[in-house]
Amino acid sequence: MNAIAREQLPVLVIGAGPAGLAAAAHLVDRGLEPLVLEAGEQAGAAVREWSHVRLFSTWGEATDPAAEKLLAPTGWVKPDAKTYPTGGDWAEQYLQPLADALGDRIRLGARVTGVSRSGRDRIVDADREDQPFTVHVTYTDGREERIFARAVIDASGTWSTPSPAGGDGLPALGERAAADRISYRVPDLKNPATRARYAGKRTAVIGSGASAFTALATLADLAKSQDGSGTHATWILRRGISGSTFGGGSADQLPARGALGLAAKAAVDEGHADAVTGFRAAAFERDGEQLVLVAEDGRRLDPIDEVIVLTGFRPDLSFLDELRLGLDERLQAPVALAPLIDPNQHSCGTIYPHGANELSHPEEGVYLVGMKSYGRAPTFLALTGYEQVRSVVAAIAGDQESAERVELVLPETGVCGGAGLFDDQSADDTQADGGGCCTPAPALILLGAGSQATAGGC
Predict the structure, then answer these.
(1) Could you say which DSSP state residue 342 is in?
(2) pLDDT in tens, 2-27
(3) What are the backbone dihedrals phi and psi of residue 291, each rounded to the nearest 5 degrees, phi first?
(4) Residues 50, 186: contact at Cβ < 8 Å?
(5) What's the pLDDT score for residue 252?
(6) How many Å apart are CA 399 and CA 99, to the nearest integer?
(7) pLDDT score recorded for residue 428
(8) How far is Cα 123 from Cα 405, in angstroms, rounded to an integer?
(9) Tens digits of per-residue pLDDT, 88-104?
């Protein structure tokens, strides 16, 4: 295929979530034709699955400028910039209208199963960069298709691949067999069936990020309700309790996140949850109708009814296997980006602006953006994704000056060892595992009113 023909091909975008739709809007703004492939049946399918969870970002931080420009002729009105949307609000009031504005540039129920260079597997060098990308797609009705593209922007996120409970990054023994008692999502207790599942039950919550905070606060609210008598949570942390465990509180520059940490602390202080520290799950064992969690060091917890595993997410790279990606061996993020987002080094929110240069790979013309670009790092913010796609699209359009002009100021966590800057409240437990400035020896502790266990700092 000659160069002129390649330029006439669409830029293929994988995923119709916030980053993917923003990428499409930027492509349209530059006169380039996007084709967005979404595995779900609606735009923002992943966001809709956590529709009950409220963002840390306000509406003023949750929309992309190019998207707003595309929406303007439709009569779309931006919600109050100072308010905080839920995932459902975000999907219905922004992502769906944006998808509607993009029209037939989006295909739903289209799952990407492979990406390569036309006629070239990852081994072949000859004329590789002259070939377009070939993308294999399977539709929900079973049809298969091969699509050619001039460039590929993978904004498929990490929502579909939650990390397991095992402290070694693998599923704990018995975890798969106990799948009927395990959830990897923050429960929506407005759903009657979900509410009945946890009401009056003992639930283990594994994780130390914002998702865990949300689950603890939610279960505490259930415990205080008329139908929630007997509801109790056991909070399992792989590290210890320190002054930074509950985030920045009133000092957090993302106020909604700080308030969430305080709500989780209140759940523990009020006795609706107890905390088990230094516990790395190794096995799930059946005890009648209940489960017993066993740690790597042999400790066994009292039987529980349900388990909520909130240890983060990881990227699905399987369909990119024929591309030459340059990924950090630990974070699975682009090599140049990894040092900027490494949770072992950036526990205080020192995330630097970045764009196409940091997101490039040995395979020219392919970019991972949005949450997927962060690999296993938990520090992602929607604004970061919007700046990423602005820069990436500029690079694809040949505007290198604009691609390199990355200007973004992110809020700081306000705490030492803070949980980072993630916007969908799906925090990874990786950072917590990296230790912190204050990590006590493993212990079973109860935090109540007047306890000094969380009062310490670094």
Answers:
(1) -
(2) 555 777 899 999 999 999 999 999 99
(3) -120, 150
(4) yes
(5) 59
(6) 26
(7) 37
(8) 34
(9) 999 999 999 999 999 99
Residue found by looking up tokens 């084709």 in the block: 35
Do residues 413 and 252 make contact, with C-beta atoms less than 8 angstroms apart? yes
235: its two tokens = 């909070």
* Rounded Cα gap, residues 216 and 454, in angstroms: 16
Residues ≥6 apart with Cβ < 8 Å to 191: none
The residue-averaged pLDDT of 366-370 equals: 98
Half-sphere exposure of 296 (CA within 13 A, CB side): 15
202 backbone dihedrals φ, ψ, rounded to 5°: -95, 120
Sign of CA dihedral 367, 370, 372, 374: positive
Q: What is the mean pLDDT of residues 110-137?
A: 96
Grouping H, G, I as helix, E, B as strand and the rest as coil, residue 348 is: coil
- 335-366 confidence digits (pLDDT tens): 999 999 888 775 434 667 799 999 999 999 99
Given a contact cutoff of 8 angstroms between Cβ atoms, the answer to whether 135 and 149 are in contact is yes
Structure tokens at 280: 């790395």
189 with 196: CB under 8 angstroms? no
Q: What confidence category does residue 257 fall into, taking pLDDT thresholds of 50, 70 and 90? A: low
For residue 253, CA distances in Å to 54, 57, 456 come to: 16, 11, 21
d(CA 407, CA 352): 10
Contact 265, 306 (CB under 8 A): no
Contact 194, 188 (CB under 8 A): yes
| First-to-final CA distance of the chain | 60
CA distances, 320 to each of 250, 325, 353, 406 (Å): 42, 8, 26, 27
Could you give the CA distance from residue 66 to residue 53 in angstroms, rounded to a whole number?
26
Query: Phi-psi region for residue 35, left (φ > 0), alpha (ψ -120 to 50) or beta?
Result: beta
Q: Which tokens is 390 given?
A: 């602005």
Closest CA to 436 of 341, 309, 348, 331: 348
Contacts of 433 (CB under 8 A, 6+ apart): 238, 239
Distances (CA, A) of 97 to 16, 64, 102, 274, 326: 12, 13, 9, 43, 35
* Interatomic CA distance for residues 17 and 443, integer angstroms: 41
Which residues partner with 235 through β-bridges? 205, 275
> Which ranges of 154-307 would DSSP assign to H, the alpha helix?
192-198, 210-223, 255-269
What share of the chain in percent tops pLDDT 70? 83
CB of 376 closer than 8 Å to CB of 332: yes
250: helix, coil or strand? helix
Sheet holding 133-139, edge to edge: 110-117, 133-139, 144-149
| SS3 assignment, position 169 | coil
Report yes or no: 69 and 27 within 8 Å, Cβ to Cβ.
Answer: no
